[in-house]
Design goal:
About 25% of the residues are buried. Strands 5-4-3-7-6 form a five-stranded antiparallel beta sheet. Strands 8-9-10 form a three-stranded antiparallel beta sheet, with no helix packed on it. The chain contains seven helices and ten strands. Helix content is about 50%, strand content about 20%.
């Protein structure tokens, strides 16, 4: 099984609106908490208020979330755009962001010798787990709806123009090439050079000649353009060229893995297993 299956999701820069939402929410929280600490000094401790000291103390404990919150916003947005695909990679990405968030105050405590690592970890890990849950609830209830229109405009403004498939004309039987995007450029690739096609939100990732290309279209629409005798759907998100299959590994659950000659491995779903088996019988 290829290591590619265990990679974290490809990083996508958070939208400006996600940074703005994080700045407004956390900025307000930090200011209110700083004011509360200053008020505590006056009312309870009967001391002179030190707003700057309170502000720096609050930032030391919570300031890292100003940067990590847009990352988890982006992760949830990307995951929801895949309609349930890549759950394990999504969870690993959020776990890494949480670990980075916890590491910041723990490192500060070690540097200032205020607490040891174990004590600091016991204090901050439960807090940050609860914070992550609250951040998710805020994103799911409020931010997700507010980001949708802004993200749509930002995507059209910042992303390179990727060719879209024409809906007016039916697929041509003699089609031999596809017009795809590679970075900011467009190029034609031969259908015979394609190794696999994978759904990626509103795009299709096409691997051909050891290169990755993008095509803005649903995977089903691209599948209709491919020769059925050469390409095979193995998963709702993956199509492979039959000649690229090197090995098929099945599991008791009915799912499995398709190993390609290039060394890459793609998941195989139980729903599409029968088509693979018919292909194997036909080749024997």
């Amino acid at each position: 099984m290829s290591a590619r299956m265990f990679d974290l999701p490809r990083p996508i820069l958070p939208a400006p609106s996600e940074f703005l939402a994080s700045l407004v929410c956390w900025g307000t929280y930090i200011l209110l908490l700083s004011c509360y600490c200053s008020l505590y000094q006056v009312v309870v401790a009967e001391a002179e208020p030190n707003f700057l000291g309170s502000f720096l103390y609050v930032c030391r404990n919570w300031g890292v979330w100003l940067l990590t919150t847009p990352l988890v916003f982006q992760a949830w947005r990307t995951y929801s755009g895949h309609h349930g695909a890549g759950l394990s990679g999504h969870l690993r990405f959020v776990a890494v962001v949480l670990a980075i968030s916890v590491a910041v105050p723990v490192t500060i405590d070690l540097h200032t010798q205020e607490r040891n690592a174990v004590t600091s970890l016991v204090i901050f890990l439960p807090r940050y787990l609860a914070t992550l849950l609250v951040v998710y609830m805020i994103w799911h209830t409020f931010v997700r709806k507010l980001l949708a229109p802004a993200d749509s405009e930002a995507t059209h403004a910042t992303q390179p123009q990727v060719p879209e498939l024409a809906n007016e004309e039916p697929p041509r039987p003699a089609l031999t090439t596809l017009l795809v995007s590679k970075g900011a450029d467009e190029c034609l690739i031969q259908l015979g050079s394609i190794e696999s096609l994978s759904a990626a939100g509103n795009y299709v990732e096409i691997v051909a000649n050891s290169q990755c290309y993008l095509l803005r279209a649903p995977l089903k629409q691209v599948e209709d353009l491919l020769p059925q005798e050469e390409f095979l759907r193995i998963h709702r998100s993956h199509i492979v060229k039959r000649e690229s299959i090197a090995r098929i590994k099945t599991q008791p659950s009915g799912n499995g893995t398709v190993q390609l000659h290039s060394g890459r491995a793609l998941p195989m779903s139980k729903k599409h297993k029968s088509e693979l088996h018919r292909f194997r019988v036909a080749c024997d």
